[in-house]
């Protein structure tokens, strides 16, 4: 097992705490969270990137007693299914989703910003968004609202899910076997979070520059 880490926020959002508390059900808890983050509008605050990384590391350490290939497969399937559910929600809700009132778990501004991201990057946004927190939750809905051809959406969302869910999990699996990473996991998680939010920061800076120009 890894050493105790410094929480990056509330314990219920700390990926290591989540998985440790679930014990033998850790993998299936991760599957449920990945599905929610990819497919349900309430999942945008969930720790997807760091959760995948920790899941890979726990697999390497034997805490999750399943082969890496199986772990990657079920997490990727969860992401793909979540993507399809998000698309269906957007397709059925239509433009009304943009007029939904704000609540603690929903912000219309998140949808609006995701729509801008989608308009700027086109179909490749479906892949790029996998690596951008918040955007990856809402991009599926926006694709459905925009009536993106389902065949194209299914292909790009599947590719994105594989690159994200499998890629980050494999990264955690192999890096988690390095003593420095294992003994300084809190620092690594902070780096993972920073890497995740960097695209948002860059986009925000560019937007401010365009507005100020």
Would you write up a description of this structure?
With 213 residues, this protein is an all-alpha fold. The chain has one domain. The chain contains 10 helices and no strands. Helix 2 runs antiparallel to helix 3, helix 2 packs parallel to helix 4 and helix 2 crosses helix 7. The protein is globular, with a radius of gyration of 17 Å. The N terminus is likely disordered.
Strand count, sense and barrel status of the largest sheet are: none
Low-confidence stretches: 1-8
Give, in order, the helices and strands. Answer: HHHHHHHHHH
Total beta-strand segments: 0
Question: Which structural class should the secondary elements be placed in?
Answer: mainly alpha
Taken from the alpha-carbon principal axes, the silhouette is globular
Termini Cα gap: 52 Å
**Which percent band covers the strand fraction?**
under 5%
Helix content class:
over 70%
What is the mean pLDDT?
76
Rg: 17 Å
Number of domains: 1
**H/I helix tally:** 10
